[in-house]
């Protein structure tokens, strides 16, 4: 009697089981909420399909809130890129003692994830109306930040400076490996050909690093544009930015429109997704040179 052929059941490699907690976490707190937001952006309160929520993004103060958020993101990304690049270059190329590199990278790893209410409280306790620096300047030097210097922590530049606390460390973490990837042979060849240090950076190093720099700028932009908790905790309703407008729509008041809030969140998702796609594409181009 012929026996039925033995069929092997597909088995999941045990090595993949370690990824299951991560996959479950991503599905529950990233993928499913994103799908819910996208669906809600095209629904009315009774669940029927509509494009009115998307159309309403061009009404009231919503366009200006997007514009202010974009300007804050661009400003914090530009400053974070410049300062972070200078600090990373100083550490990688030996302008500062080598023993500073490890503590700086460790601090950058922690500070790049330090945001939300704790960060807002830290800056309010430092630069707020009764903050440490504010009181010190007023009592010791007679300088009032808002009157004499025009600085207010609850303003455009106040939120931008707050964002720099995590933007600069993130820039250091990303650009340091790119700087370390610059080959010594390129610098030696430039020296042999009589190029100065400025010419080397202008004609060799910066063109090679340009995709990494531009890609990191796009990532910092997305990082700032998607920062919600810090903005709400720091400025409350004093600054008209997208997270504040979104919170006002979905918090449940009778004047709120949750589906319009979903549409605003959908707009934020689109903008941050574009920035991240640009970052990934430029990162892949940069790796061709740095391999």
From TrEMBL:
<feature type="domain" description="ABC transmembrane type-1">
    <location>
        <begin position="66"/>
        <end position="279"/>
    </location>
</feature>
<dbReference type="InterPro" id="IPR035906">
    <property type="entry name" value="MetI-like_sf"/>
</dbReference>
<keyword id="KW-1003">Cell membrane</keyword>
<feature type="transmembrane region" description="Helical">
    <location>
        <begin position="199"/>
        <end position="221"/>
    </location>
</feature>
<keyword id="KW-0812">Transmembrane</keyword>
<feature type="transmembrane region" description="Helical">
    <location>
        <begin position="149"/>
        <end position="179"/>
    </location>
</feature>
<dbReference type="InterPro" id="IPR000515">
    <property type="entry name" value="MetI-like"/>
</dbReference>
<keyword id="KW-1133">Transmembrane helix</keyword>
<feature type="transmembrane region" description="Helical">
    <location>
        <begin position="74"/>
        <end position="96"/>
    </location>
</feature>
<feature type="transmembrane region" description="Helical">
    <location>
        <begin position="20"/>
        <end position="42"/>
    </location>
</feature>
<dbReference type="GO" id="GO:0005886">
    <property type="term" value="C:plasma membrane"/>
</dbReference>
<feature type="transmembrane region" description="Helical">
    <location>
        <begin position="116"/>
        <end position="137"/>
    </location>
</feature>
<keyword id="KW-0813">Transport</keyword>
<dbReference type="GO" id="GO:0055085">
    <property type="term" value="P:transmembrane transport"/>
</dbReference>
<feature type="transmembrane region" description="Helical">
    <location>
        <begin position="228"/>
        <end position="248"/>
    </location>
</feature>
<comment type="similarity">
    <text>Belongs to the binding-protein-dependent transport system permease family. CysTW subfamily.</text>
</comment>
<feature type="transmembrane region" description="Helical">
    <location>
        <begin position="260"/>
        <end position="282"/>
    </location>
</feature>
<dbReference type="Pfam" id="PF00528">
    <property type="entry name" value="BPD_transp_1"/>
</dbReference>
<keyword id="KW-0472">Membrane</keyword>
<protein>
    <submittedName>
        <fullName>ABC transporter permease subunit</fullName>
    </submittedName>
</protein>
């Amino acid at each position: 009697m012929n026996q039925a052929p033995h069929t092997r059941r597909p088995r999941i490699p045990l090595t993949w089981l370690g990824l299951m907690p991560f996959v479950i976490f991503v599905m529950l707190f990233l993928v499913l909420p994103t799908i819910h937001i996208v669906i809600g952006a095209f629904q009315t309160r009774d669940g029927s399909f509509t494009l009115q929520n998307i159309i309403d993004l061009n009404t009231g103060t919503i366009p200006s809130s997007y514009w202010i958020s974009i300007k804050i993101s661009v400003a914090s990304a530009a400053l974070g890129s410049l300062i972070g690049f200078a600090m990373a270059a100083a550490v990688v190329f030996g302008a500062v003692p080598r023993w500073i590199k490890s503590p700086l990278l460790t601090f950058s790893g922690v500070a790049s994830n330090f945001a939300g209410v704790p960060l807002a409280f830290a800056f309010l306790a430092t630069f707020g109306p009764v903050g440490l620096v504010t009181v010190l300047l007023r009592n010791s030097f007679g300088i009032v930040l808002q009157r004499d210097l025009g600085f207010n922590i609850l303003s455009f530049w106040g939120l931008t400076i707050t964002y720099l606390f995590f933007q600069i460390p993130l820039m250091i973490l990303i650009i340091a490996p790119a700087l370390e990837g610059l080959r010594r042979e390129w610098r030696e060849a430039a020296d042999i050909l009589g190029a100065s240090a400025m010419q080397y950076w202008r004609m060799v190093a910066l063109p090679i690093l340009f995709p990494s720099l531009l890609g990191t700028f796009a990532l910092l932009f997305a990082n700032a544009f998607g920062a919600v908790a810090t903005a709400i905790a720091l400025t409350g309703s004093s600054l008209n930015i997208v997270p504040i407008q979104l919170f006002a729509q979905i918090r449940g008041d009778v004047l709120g429109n949750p589906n319009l809030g979903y549409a605003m969140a959908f707009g934020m998702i689109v903008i941050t997704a574009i920035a991240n796609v640009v970052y990934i594409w430029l990162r892949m181009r940069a790796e061709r040179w740095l391999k």
